[in-house]
Protein backbone atom coordinates (compact mmCIF):
# COMPACT_ATOMS: atom_id res chain seq x y z
CA UNK A 1 0.00 0.00 0.00
CA UNK A 2 2.81 2.40 0.65
CA UNK A 3 3.26 2.87 4.38
CA UNK A 4 5.72 5.74 3.88
CA UNK A 5 3.34 7.49 1.46
CA UNK A 6 0.52 7.16 3.99
CA UNK A 7 2.66 8.58 6.79
CA UNK A 8 3.71 11.48 4.54
CA UNK A 9 0.11 12.23 3.60
CA UNK A 10 -1.07 11.99 7.21
CA UNK A 11 1.72 14.31 8.35
CA UNK A 12 0.86 16.84 5.64
CA UNK A 13 -2.82 16.77 6.63
CA UNK A 14 -2.01 17.36 10.31
CA UNK A 15 0.43 20.16 9.46
CA UNK A 16 -2.16 21.78 7.18
CA UNK A 17 -4.74 21.71 9.97
CA UNK A 18 -2.31 23.23 12.47
CA UNK A 19 -1.19 26.02 10.13
CA UNK A 20 -4.74 26.95 9.09
CA UNK A 21 -5.91 26.83 12.72
CA UNK A 22 -3.12 29.13 13.89
CA UNK A 23 -3.82 31.61 11.09
CA UNK A 24 -7.54 31.61 11.89
CA UNK A 25 -6.84 31.97 15.62
CA UNK A 26 -4.69 35.03 14.97
CA UNK A 27 -7.34 36.56 12.72
CA UNK A 28 -10.11 35.82 15.21
CA UNK A 29 -8.11 37.26 18.11
CA UNK A 30 -7.38 40.50 16.29
CA UNK A 31 -10.81 41.11 14.75
CA UNK A 32 -14.39 40.69 15.85
CA UNK A 33 -15.94 40.04 12.45
CA UNK A 34 -14.81 36.44 11.92
CA UNK A 35 -16.94 33.76 13.54
CA UNK A 36 -16.50 30.08 12.72
CA UNK A 37 -19.29 27.54 12.68
CA UNK A 38 -19.11 23.77 12.89
CA UNK A 39 -19.44 23.52 9.11
CA UNK A 40 -16.41 25.83 8.71
CA UNK A 41 -14.35 23.57 10.95
CA UNK A 42 -15.48 20.50 9.02
CA UNK A 43 -14.46 22.20 5.79
CA UNK A 44 -10.98 22.82 7.21
CA UNK A 45 -10.72 19.17 8.24
CA UNK A 46 -11.86 17.85 4.86
CA UNK A 47 -9.54 20.20 2.97
CA UNK A 48 -6.65 19.02 5.16
CA UNK A 49 -7.52 15.40 4.41
CA UNK A 50 -7.72 16.18 0.69
CA UNK A 51 -4.33 17.92 0.67
CA UNK A 52 -2.77 15.07 2.64
CA UNK A 53 -4.39 12.45 0.41
CA UNK A 54 -3.14 14.14 -2.75
CA UNK A 55 0.37 14.50 -1.34
CA UNK A 56 0.45 10.91 -0.09
CA UNK A 57 -0.86 9.49 -3.36
CA UNK A 58 1.72 11.43 -5.34
CA UNK A 59 4.40 9.88 -3.12
CA UNK A 60 3.19 6.33 -3.72
CA UNK A 61 3.94 3.97 -6.56
CA UNK A 62 0.31 3.07 -7.14
CA UNK A 63 -3.11 2.59 -5.58
CA UNK A 64 -3.50 6.24 -4.66
CA UNK A 65 -7.08 5.66 -3.57
CA UNK A 66 -5.85 3.27 -0.88
CA UNK A 67 -3.28 5.75 0.41
CA UNK A 68 -5.97 8.47 0.45
CA UNK A 69 -8.35 6.15 2.28
CA UNK A 70 -5.71 5.44 4.92
CA UNK A 71 -4.96 9.15 5.36
CA UNK A 72 -8.66 9.96 5.79
CA UNK A 73 -9.32 7.16 8.27
CA UNK A 74 -6.19 7.92 10.31
CA UNK A 75 -7.02 11.62 10.43
CA UNK A 76 -10.61 11.05 11.53
CA UNK A 77 -9.58 8.41 14.08
CA UNK A 78 -7.10 10.87 15.59
CA UNK A 79 -9.80 13.56 15.68
CA UNK A 80 -12.18 11.17 17.47
CA UNK A 81 -9.52 10.18 20.01
CA UNK A 82 -8.60 13.80 20.72
CA UNK A 83 -12.28 14.73 20.99
CA UNK A 84 -12.88 11.92 23.48
CA UNK A 85 -9.83 12.87 25.54
CA UNK A 86 -11.04 16.46 25.68
CA UNK A 87 -14.14 15.32 27.52
CA UNK A 88 -16.19 18.29 26.38
CA UNK A 89 -19.72 18.05 25.07
CA UNK A 90 -18.40 18.49 21.53
CA UNK A 91 -15.95 15.64 22.06
CA UNK A 92 -18.62 13.36 23.45
CA UNK A 93 -21.00 14.28 20.63
CA UNK A 94 -18.30 13.51 18.07
CA UNK A 95 -18.06 9.96 19.41
CA UNK A 96 -21.75 9.44 18.63
CA UNK A 97 -21.25 10.78 15.11
CA UNK A 98 -17.97 8.89 14.73
CA UNK A 99 -18.90 6.38 12.07
CA UNK A 100 -20.43 9.01 9.80
CA UNK A 101 -17.35 11.20 10.20
CA UNK A 102 -15.01 8.33 9.43
CA UNK A 103 -17.01 7.42 6.32
CA UNK A 104 -17.01 11.04 5.10
CA UNK A 105 -13.27 11.36 5.73
CA UNK A 106 -12.70 8.04 3.95
CA UNK A 107 -14.67 9.26 0.92
CA UNK A 108 -12.69 12.52 0.80
CA UNK A 109 -9.46 10.52 1.17
CA UNK A 110 -10.35 8.10 -1.63
CA UNK A 111 -11.25 10.90 -4.04
CA UNK A 112 -8.14 12.92 -3.20
CA UNK A 113 -5.98 9.81 -3.56
CA UNK A 114 -7.42 9.23 -7.04
CA UNK A 115 -6.68 12.83 -7.95
CA UNK A 116 -3.17 12.68 -6.47
CA UNK A 117 -2.11 9.51 -8.28
CA UNK A 118 -3.21 11.05 -11.59
CA UNK A 119 -1.27 14.26 -10.94
CA UNK A 120 2.05 12.38 -11.07
Care to describe what's here?
- It is a single chain.
- It is built from five helices and no strands.
- It is mostly helical and 120 residues long.
- It has one domain.
- The radius of gyration is 15 Å and the shape is globular.
- The model has no long low-confidence stretch (mean pLDDT 86).
Write the layout of secondary structure elements.
Layout: H1 3-30, H2 38-59, H3 64-86, H4 89-96, H5 98-118
Salient structural properties:
120 residues, single chain
Order of helices and strands: HHHHH
Summed up, the helix count is 5
Tally of domains: 1
- Describe the largest sheet: none
Report mean pLDDT, rounded to a whole number: 86
Please count the beta strands (DSSP E, at least 2 residues each): 0
Distance between the termini: 17 Å
Radius of gyration: 15 Å
Low-confidence stretches: none
Structural class assignment = mainly alpha
Shape: globular
Helical residues, percent: over 70%
Strand content: under 5%
Concise summary:
The protein is mainly alpha-helical.
Amino acid sequence: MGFIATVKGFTVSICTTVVVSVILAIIMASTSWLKLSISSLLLINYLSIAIGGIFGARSSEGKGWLVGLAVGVLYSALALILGALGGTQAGIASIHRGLGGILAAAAVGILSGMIGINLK
